[in-house]
Design brief:
The chain has eight helices and seven strands; from the N terminus they run E-H-H-E-H-H-E-H-H-E-H-E-E-E-H. By secondary structure, it is an alpha+beta fold. A five-stranded antiparallel β-sheet has the order 1-2-3-7-4, sandwiched between helices. The two termini are about 30 Å apart. The mean pLDDT is about 95. The chain binds iron/sulfur cluster.
Length: about 240
């Protein structure tokens, strides 16, 4: 490790998602007409989220040797993975974790208990989008930090990757937690490697030439992947 974990200041208002993003996560196509009832449910979910979220973030810059140990984890990764190919080409790496805090889970459970299923589903999707937006803010924070100290050459790009995706086994969370200690911001790791609070995101931010983040669907995990989230991310790289 090259430094101590740093707390990243996060404001919920900076991370609240658009209606399009929240509806897209629930399978509503972009541009689809939305009924007044759905619009009201979205507004209610966002108000609830803004009221109960207590976002927190943690970042730890690591060198390649330190990340190699985190990535190897319990030895359960696929033979080849995107992150396994990418991180050796990185100029900088940082472990990160973000969370919306415990009250969001409580509110979600309360909505279900009250039988407000539509609101619960909207809140769940909105919270997932918001957690992802928080991760993106931390990603940009790391890029800015590198830029400010002159360590972000032109053409380099920060992008995050998480255990549990694309062949990086979810058990990798254990070593990530050992190194980063997200318990400092209230995130616990369960026996099945799920995080509590559930609306949390962890992983590694990889900084390097934009080309290293562009890869084909050539990995063992791609054969059974239905989401193909990598394509959207790669598309975004081109439009930045
Ligand atoms: S197709 Fe799926 S498994 Fe393969 S790199 Fe893309 S997101 Fe990952």
């Amino acid at each position: 490790m090259t430094c101590a974990p740093r707390h990243i200041p996060l404001q919920i208002d900076d991370a609240l998602p658009s209606r399009d993003d929240v509806l897209a996560l629930q399978g509503v196509p972009l541009g689809h007409a939305v009924s007044p009832a759905i619009a009201r449910t979205f507004d209610a979910a966002i108000r609830l989220l803004a009221d109960c979220a207590t976002p927190r973030g943690l970042l730890l810059e690591v060198d390649q040797a330190a990340f190699e140990s985190v990535y190897r984890g319990a030895g359960r990764n696929a033979d080849r993975t995107p992150i396994g190919d990418i991180y050796p080409q990185a100029g900088a790496l940082a472990l990160f974790a973000v969370t919306l805090g415990p009250r969001v889970t409580t509110e979600l459970n309360d909505c279900f208990k009250r039988g407000e299923v539509a609101l619960a589903a909207m809140l769940d999707a909105a919270a997932s989008c918001t957690a992802d937006n928080l991760a993106e803010i931390v990603e940009q924070h790391f890029a800015t930090l590198l830029r400010d100290r002159g360590d972000l050459p032109p053409g380099q790009r920060a992008l995050r990757y998480s255990p549990g995706y694309c062949g990086w086994d979810i058990s990798g969370q254990r070593r990530l937690f050992d190194a980063l200690q997200p318990e400092r911001i209230g995130i616990q790791l369960g026996d099945t490697f799920l995080m509590d609070p559930l609306k949390s995101v962890s992983g590694v931010i990889v900084v390097g030439p934009v080309e290293i983040h562009r890869f084909g669907m050539v990995y063992p995990a791609c054969r059974v992947c239905t989401e193909r989230g990598c394509r959207t991310r790669i598309q975004r790289l081109s439009s930045d």
